[in-house]
Amino acid sequence: MLTLDLNDARPLHEQVAGAIRRAIGEGSYTQGDRLPSARDLAEALGINSNTVLRALRELREEGLLEFRRGRGVSVARQADGRALIRERARALLEEAGRYGYRAEDVIAILKEFP
């Protein structure tokens, strides 16, 4: 199930879009799978359904989701690996910032890996 970080400074619709993007990238949803309704997602996340709809529209514009009348929202294609890495990198940088690290510090840490 999708989760949101209430300490995240990003707008809720961006967090929802990122969570769905991650779920698709990690294989929880594959091409052709139907997503739960916006109302069900909003209820599960404890947010307004308009916020979820905004996230879903954003993902439709990216070509990741498709809307079909009477059939709901389904995955149009698998998430681009680069998009998934960007989403995770953004989350890493935000977490690092909470501990006082800058992007340059995170890059230095990453360079320590083989």
TrEMBL record:
This entry's Gene Ontology molecular function terms read: DNA binding; DNA-binding transcription factor activity
Concerning Pfam families, the annotation shows:
GntR (PF00392)
Q: Which residues cross the membrane?
A: none
Q: Keywords assigned by UniProt?
A: DNA-binding, Transcription, Transcription regulation
By its UniProt entry, which InterPro entries does this protein fall under?
Tscrpt_reg_HTH_GntR (IPR000524), WH-like_DNA-bd_sf (IPR036388), WH_DNA-bd_sf (IPR036390)
Domain (HTH gntR-type): residue spans on this chain: 10-78
Tell me what this protein is called: GntR family transcriptional regulator
Provenance organism: Nonomuraea glycinis
Q: What is the lineage of its organism?
A: Bacteria, Bacillati, Actinomycetota, Actinomycetes, Streptosporangiales
